[in-house]
């Protein structure tokens, strides 16, 4: 197990849709261990595999003291609406109000190939959608209004260049 470095926008791995996991290999087991160890830090709600440079459909989560993972997650259902602050480990230092469904349910598998269903409202619902977006090659900035998105991307470019706002 290892705490892995977080990839940051504009790293191309964050914009690449992740591949389905077709076989549970020792490398997939190590990936899950690394995801679990890396998400186990205060303030971290979720972490997708591509955020640590691996283009496979897997993410870990850390919500209300419960830590877990899911492989090959697919959103099955969403309902309601929430509009609140959202941040991302791959977009450090920025928080924007983001519109999401209040409730989300995803289905996938665990390391034994058994079906896993994760669901929840509020923060859990937001995290499920956020991490599935990552696995589809999207970051939460894509959901912002045009001007906010421009401001965030400008901030990230300046950050890369060693400047601040």
- Quaternary state, please? single chain
Strand arrangement across the biggest beta sheet: 1-2-3-6-7
Helix content: 25-40%
Distance between the termini: 36 Å
Report the order of strands and helices: HEEEEEEEHH
How many runs of DSSP E, i.e. beta strands?
Answer: 7
Number of helices: 3
Major sheet description = 5 strands, antiparallel
Computed Rg: 15 Å
Mean pLDDT: 94
pLDDT under 50 segments (min length 5)?
A: none
Strand percentage: 25-35%
Shape: globular
Structural class: alpha+beta
Write the layout of secondary structure elements.
Elements: H1 26-39, E1 46-48, E2 58-63, E3 66-79, E4 82-88, E5 91-100, E6 103-109, E7 115-121, H2 122-135, H3 146-160
Antiparallel strand pairs: 1-2, 2-3, 3-6, 4-5, 6-7
Structural commentary:
Belongs to the polypeptide deformylase family. Keywords: Hydrolase, Iron, Metal-binding, Protein biosynthesis. Its EC number is 3.5.1.88. This protein is an alpha+beta fold and 165 residues long. It has a five-stranded antiparallel beta sheet. It has a two-stranded antiparallel ribbon with strand order 4-5. The protein has helices at 26-39, 122-135, 146-160, and strands spanning 46-48, 58-63, 66-79, 82-88, 91-100, 103-109, 115-121.
């Amino acid at each position: 197990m290892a705490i892995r470095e977080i990839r940051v926008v504009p790293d191309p791995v964050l914009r690449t849709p992740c591949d389905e996991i077709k076989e549970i290999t020792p490398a997939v087991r190590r990936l899950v261990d690394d995801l679990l160890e890396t998400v186990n830090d205060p303030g971290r709600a979720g972490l997708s595999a591509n955020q640590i440079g691996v283009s496979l459909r897997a993410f870990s989560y850390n919500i209300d003291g419960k830590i877990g993972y899911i492989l090959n997650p697919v959103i099955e259902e969403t309902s309601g609406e929430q509009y609140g602050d959202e941040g991302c480990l791959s977009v450090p230092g920025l928080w924007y109000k983001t519109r999401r469904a209040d409730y989300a349910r995803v289905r996938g598998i665990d390391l034994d190939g058994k079906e896993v269903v994760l669901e929840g409202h509020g923060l859990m619902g937001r995290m499920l959608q956020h991490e599935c977006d990552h696995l589809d090659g999207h970051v939460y900035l894509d959901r912002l209004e045009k001007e906010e998105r421009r401001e965030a991307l400008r901030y990230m470019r300046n950050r890369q260049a060693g400047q601040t706002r």
